[in-house]
Amino acid sequence: MPEVNLYAGDEAAMLALGARIARVTGGRGVIYLHGDLGAGKTTLSRGLIRGFGHEGKVKSPTFTLVEPYELGEVQVFHFDLYRLVDPEELEFLGIRDYFEGNALCLIEWPERGAGILPKADMDITITPHEAGRTLRLSPHTARGEAWCVALTD
Ligand code: ADP
Ligand code: MG
Predict the structure, then answer these.
(1) Which of 40, 87, 90, 143 has CA 20 to 30 A from 153's CA?
(2) Cα(82) to centroid of ligand 2, in Å?
């Protein structure tokens, strides 16, 4: 399955892309978000979470490490592991429970949780390009491939 490349010219387009990705996932799976500080990982996550009908704030979980959202049938866990010192810390958060349920997990800075996090269905790498951002979507599982197929329809 080849990668899918998308472009978001501004923040509004990024939020719209998030909502589109939310729809194809159906609210289940694991997405790793890559990109430098300020790339737009939290913005894209906000678009995804709002895509499931969330109307309140989506704050960056930089200090809490994870923010849970209950959105009707869908459960989303938004992680930001930037401040994680040791992947073992994740064990204390009880993250196994998060990954055993039928939730969608969005994970910023997943490399900091290496060895503890489950495998990603898809990596999304965000890079600045002109005034906006390019998103490279790389699927790693049959589920991730199905998402990419749905996104290119
Ligand atoms: P990260 O979580 O990767 O550190 P954030 O999403 O917090 O990044 O911040 C990204 C910044 O870039 C915000 O100021 C946001 O308004 C802006 N931004 C997000 N997506 C785009 C885009 N597609 N084009 C231009 N600016 C964007
Ligand atoms: Mg962020």
Answers:
(1) 40
(2) 8
Radius of gyration from C-alpha coordinates of the chain: 14
Please indicate whether residue 15, judged by its CB atom, sits closer than 6 Å to ligand 1.
Answer: no
Half-sphere exposure in the Cβ direction for 95 (13 Å, CA): 26
0.95 surpassed by complex ipTM: yes
Report pLDDT digits (tens) over 10-25.
Answer: 999 999 999 999 999 9
Report the C-alpha gap between 144 and 8 in whole angstroms.
21
